[in-house]
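Let's practice the habit of predicting before peeking. Look at the sequence and jot down your guess about where helices and strands might fall. Then scroll down.
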Amino acid sequence: MTGAGESTDLIARAAAGDVDARNALFAQHTERLQRLVRLRLSRRLQGRVDEGDVVQEALLEAARKLNEYLQHPDAPFYLWLRHLTGLKLAELHRHHLGTQMRDADREVSIYRGALPEADSVSLAAHLLGTMTSPSQVAVRAERQIRLQEAVNSLDPIDREILALRHFEQLSNQETAEVLGMSPSGATARHMRALKRLKTILESVPGFFE
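Done guessing? Here is the structure:
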């Protein structure tokens, strides 16, 4: 199961032991995996842990397990890489944060295992977009705080689906697989989350000006 966007040629060559093909295949997904780490890395570890190192460790693990995956590909290739990266990130959190992890930041997602929860600051900044005018800096900071509060007030699954679709940029099909939903259910939940977020933000004076 490789997904519509996969290079079947690269996968076939990687399966045959072509190291260059394997590395090219991994390179296709590196940016998306770094985005995953950036979103889900605890703020207490930012500046101490390099997102590229986390991804590199995950890809080394993927290289060791590639033949095993190719023999029984029970998930699309990118979601398999994403799962391995999430496990590395969770392991990193446990190593550095120990028992504080669950109590302080609620960083472990309840969805599909061990991936740490999306960081609301990163998600709010992404949803807000970029304001570059100097006159908008203060406005942007205030609106990001408002948006972060709105994100935190959503149900956990609504936050997760917004993170998957708008930050990790997963397709609806990928999102459905990650959350264990049908594609139609994922679409409905995504629309519901967007509607809830918009309703919350409409109560913030001047947010949509």
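How did you do? The first helix runs from residue 8 to 15.
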